[in-house]
Amino acid sequence: MNGPDTLFVGDDSPTLAEIAKSQAVCVETAKSYGGGVLVVSGIVITCLHFIRNQGEICVNGKPAKLIHTNKAQDLAALCIDQDAPWVKFCLTPRLEEVVVFTAPIRIKKQFRLVTSPEGRITYVAPDVLCASMLTELGSCGSGLWSQQGLLGLVASDENLGFTQAVPSRILQRFAVQSYRILHNLQKSKGEANNQRELPFVQRQGQLPWQ
User: Fold this and answer.
1) Closest residue by Cα to residue 136 from 102, 110, 166
2) Are 105 and 90 a contacting pair, CB within 8 Å?
3) pLDDT digits (tens, 9 = 90+) for 6-24
4) CB burial of residue 46 (10 Å; 0-12, 13-18, 19+)
5) What is the dihedral sign for C-alpha 81, 39, 66, 36?
6) Phi, psi values for residue 18, rounded to 5°
7) Which pLDDT score, from 0 to 100, does residue 208 have?
8) SS3 assignment for 99-132
9) How far is the C-alpha of 187 from the C-alpha of 198, rounded, in Å?
10) What is the pLDDT of residues 52-101, one digit of tens each?
11) Secondary element (H or E) of residue 210
């Protein structure tokens, strides 16, 4: 499990493509699809605009529940019953840093996760990152990764000539809020039904990002 201070270094470290794929998911509705990042067991973060008011939401083909949104930042948190290590948020992106993202593509009626060619960070601001690779249909909501961890979330799949992303500093705050909401939902449900909380809430305990 990668903790919040883990760096991907050493001869046995995963490649950048492997890092980008490790917690990538496909988020799908009846009319649209895009990427997402499984930031901790039970929680996927993606973009809100392509799933809003679209009916049932699925993550990797399984139903997911919308538990939290941030309309100003176009973020959505989905609840799924799947384990994952803590995502490592990189809060200090650097110009020219090498990055990739992994996004779903539709092949006939199925989806496959594909990693983009490498690009570089070209612009850094408190509320936006830009990188020198192209986006395609389905890129929206995918994680933008470097060797240091998750840098941001791809904000659009329009062909702008570059990739625009929501920075991880914003994503981390949203992830903490989402985890607290999920924990409280499961706790209330467990008390109401005289049952224990879902296993992934019990196992994870305190978030390392706080």
Assistant:
1) 102
2) no
3) 333 444 568 888 888 889 9
4) buried
5) negative
6) -65, -40
7) 65
8) EEEEEEEEECCEEEEEECCCEEEEEEECCEEEEC
9) 8
10) 988 899 999 999 999 999 999 999 999 998 888 889 999 999 999 999 99
11) none
Dihedrals φ, ψ of 171, to 5°?
-60, -40
3-state secondary structure 51-94: CCCCCCEEECCEEEEEEEEECCCCEEEEECCCCCCCCCECCCCC
Tokens read off for 50: 């392509």
The first and second tokens of residue 1, run together, are: 């499990």
| CA-based nearest residue to 160, from 203, 204, 128 | 128
Residue 175 belongs to what H/E stretch? helix 168-192
Report which residue type is found at 162. F
Q: Residue 150's closest CA among 8, 1, 49, 27?
A: 8
